[in-house]
Write a structure and sequence with these properties.
- Helix content is 79%, strand content 0%.
- It has eleven helices and no strands.
- Helix 1 crosses helix 6, helix 6 packs antiparallel against helix 11 and helix 7 runs antiparallel to helix 10 (208-220).
- The chain is elongated.
């Protein structure tokens, strides 16, 4: 157990050092969420005036949604690191070393979780700068971070599993793009559930992106609905466990075939 924790920490640190050497990459991953927040927040701000939308400004509604969407889309690229490691022989060197096999998956998802926290804080800062305000305070923001990290871990593990199966960057990116936008728009990330078409609201109840968005907004309110937070948070935790188990199982299959 001690070896697993130690190796997970070392591999997470290796992945984070790679990011610090390429700050342009982290900056690039924030361009799209800023467009959503600053452009969509202004373009659709009068949506908040529609009957049934609820109280508050649209940018306050949109900010936690953009945090969640950024976590999902950024984590969807996690598997590209595995494919690059396979192409460059780094994976073969790792497999011939005494490094814990489980730590290879754990290091990947922990790196994605830490990256998600940095991205979420930047998006929250931008939201506050353009007028978003939350009565839920620091505790509400911590819940948003926790939900975003669980969502990012789930999608990073899924992306790693797909990468180990297809072993082609183009195929992985295609699958990631195929899933990302439908999951984002079939959720309450940008639109209140009360104003959705009935079938979209029904589909959203099974969408993990919606779980994270609903739990985040419930925690940020003046009177947080903790039953909603715990219910959706529990679903996200279960999904993260299942996806990590899936990625680990696929990695064992890859190891036998390598």
């Amino acid at each position: 157990m001690t070896t697993f924790v130690s190796h997970s920490g070392l591999l997470t640190g290796r992945a984070l050092r790679t990011v610090t050497r390429q700050p342009a990459y982290l900056l690039f991953t924030l361009v799209q969420p800023m467009v959503w927040l600053l452009l969509f927040g202004q373009l659709f701000k009068r949506i908040a005036e529609l009957p049934g939308f609820g109280s508050g400004s649209y940018v306050a509604y949109l900010t936690p949604g953009v945090v969640v969407m950024t976590a999902m889309m950024s984590a969807g690229w996690s598997g590209t690191t595995f494919i690059q490691a396979m192409d460059r022989g780094v994976m073969d060197r790792d497999l011939t070393s005494p490094v814990s096999r489980g730590a290879i998956i754990t290091g990947s998802v922990l790196h994605q979780g830490i990256t998600t926290i940095v991205q979420a804080l930047v998006v929250f800062g931008a939201g506050l700068a353009v007028g978003a305000r939350y009565d839920g305070g620091v505790l509400g923001v911590l819940v948003v971070l926790a939900c975003s990290v669980l969502l990012a871990v789930s999608f990073a593990a899924f992306s790693d599993a797909i990468a180990l199966l297809v072993r082609q960057q183009e195929a992985l990116i295609g699958i990631s793009q195929f899933l990302a936008l439908p999951l984002a728009f079939l959720s309450s990330v940008m639109m209140s559930p009360a104003l959705m078409p009935g079938w979209v609201a029904d589909v959203a109840r099974f969408n993990p992106v919606d779980w994270a968005a609903v739990a985040s907004r419930a925690a940020l309110g003046a009177d947080p609905d903790w039953s909603v937070v715990l219910g959706r948070g529990g679903l996200l935790l279960a999904l993260a466990v299942v996806m990590c188990w899936l990625a680990t199982s696929v990695f064992r299959s890859y190891q036998r075939s390598a």
